[in-house]
Amino acid sequence: MPASGIISSQNCRITLLPSRYTVSIVAFTVNSRTVMQKTNQELQDRLAHILNTIESLEGVIEAYDEWADTHDQDQLCLGYGAPFITCDVMREMVPDKSARILDVAAGTGLAGVELKQSGYTNIDALEPSKKLARKAEEKLVYNNIILDTVDTNTLDIDTDLYDAVIACACFLPNHILPSCLSELIRIVKPNGYIIIVTDKEYYQDHVYGRELQKEINQFSDDRKIIQIKREDRPGYYKHLKTATVLVIRVL
Ligand SMILES: C[S@@+](CC[C@H](N)C(=O)[O-])C[C@H]1O[C@@H](n2cnc3c(N)ncnc32)[C@H](O)[C@@H]1O
């Protein structure tokens, strides 16, 4: 059954109405003033535009900058679950709560919040959108926030620094290129992990996903990594999209 109802605290109320798939209209009310009203379709269109239409990385980052103020509420309303899945996989793979973790393309820090709540204490973030990074900073879950892209550049990060890198909803078209996997492998310690949580649809049915798997296979053949998990989990977006989880151990 689709979610519906009201989530309320002292000053804030979110109204969720059901539709065929999931929440269809959301009113976000603070101190009795409606500050946001959007349809589910508008939010999905915004995401589809970022993933499929914008032609440059600068354009993508600008689009996230513009989304900063309502990003978390909008994602909550759409039932965004990728950060929860990422955190679940971290707990399964890396039980050591002092592990040094990098949250790449951290956005506003939703995965960081989950990790912190699960007891992880040593988390950095990397995020190219200044406005999203500022939102992430306000959540007080990261030790360092690196303002940078994962692209053709070499990151200003030491080799073999991290026990784990998480990549939640960023190995996607128009975001991190599949070829950038090599740079993430470089910054992860031997026996450390790269945890990728992505949209099954793009992983399975899009040329992007095929390129990503090709990169993984090549690094596996070269004995640089082992792919230890590739599975689908429900709830990338609740009632709407399935996640594909990829776990890579660096050799
Ligand atoms: C769908 S959001 C996910 C954010 C966050 N991981 C989460 O789950 O809430 C995608 C993020 O990827 C970032 N991004 C896009 N391209 C990137 C790149 N080449 N390098 C690093 N980050 C990138 C965007 O700025 C945005 O924060």
Automatic annotation (TrEMBL):
One Pfam family matching this protein: Methyltransf_25
UniProt xrefs under InterPro entries: Methyltransf_25, SAM-dependent_MTases_sf
Superkingdom of origin organism: Eukaryota
Signal peptide (UniProt feature, chain positions): none
Domain Methyltransferase residue range list: 101-192
UniProt-recorded name of the protein: Williams-Beuren syndrome chromosomal region 27 protein-like
Protein's organism: Saccoglossus kowalevskii
